[in-house]
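Worked Example 4.2. Consider the chain below.
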Amino acid sequence: MSATTSTRAAGAVALALAVALAGCGREEAAPAPEANAATADARQAPPDPEPAEPVKLEDVSEITSTYVIGISYAPSAEQYPGLAAAMAEYAEEARQELMEAVEARSARSGVDPSEAMYDLSLAFSEVLVTPNVVAYAADGSTYTGGAHSIPLVARFVWLPPQRRMLTAERLVPEPEGWGPIAEYVRERLSEQLGERLADADADPVDRDGQQRTGREMIEQGTSGGAEDFAAFEPLAGERGRLSGLRFVFPPYQVAPYSEGMQAVEVPAPVLLPSVAPELQVLFEGGEGADAAGVSGAVAAESS
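Applying the procedure from the previous section yields the following structure tokens:
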């Protein structure tokens, strides 16, 4: 064998070894199959089941000698069948509860003309409509006896590209993720409580007692994780993203009935550390597509 041939052979061997070693390096750096599968599952969550038939949201008005029902919808919600079905189901459940109370009262003692009429009043309204997120509010009350009506407060947030409802459990999938969000909300609610008491003309001793009671209600009403933060509204930000969420709390949850519904706006920087990775693209400062391409990125994740 000539020196030239030996040199070429040695070079070929060296090149083969270099390629093999480089290939080994790439294999070691590649993510584990389990990690790839988990990421794919998270970003390709299936859409929510859609109703077999189109959902028609029709206002309801019923007036009888024993009860009154008034339900009004936002017609624009019909273009999202899954969302419309959820709204109609919520209204129907409220109506059924009222009718059960009406029947129970009639079976118990008949109808006393002096008794207050039972009633259900519920209105759905449009909160936000964007290509990536739409939201509707349900507000009302039902009266089936007692000192006052029972408030009805619900929020429906729909992601059109994914065809999925954005629930508190999906927003923050890890229970411990609610900790910093709850802490922020409690601070803001405590500030609001202090402002209300400062404006009230009350004895200092009474004010101190009301403050202690108020803080206890706030603590109890925000320590249950996703269940306590089920009602929220998206806040429109710049270039198609969300600047944060407004969490709403019905009477009795974090304040007395007389104080009405309470609300706290939580900015995106507070939310993002807890938000599911595949949903961070929806928020300002979240990882994902450029703000101008948010819709395309979300759609791609669901395809």
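DSSP finds eight helices and nine strands in the chain. The CA atoms of residues 203 and 209 lie 10 Å apart. Compare this with Example 4.1 before moving on.
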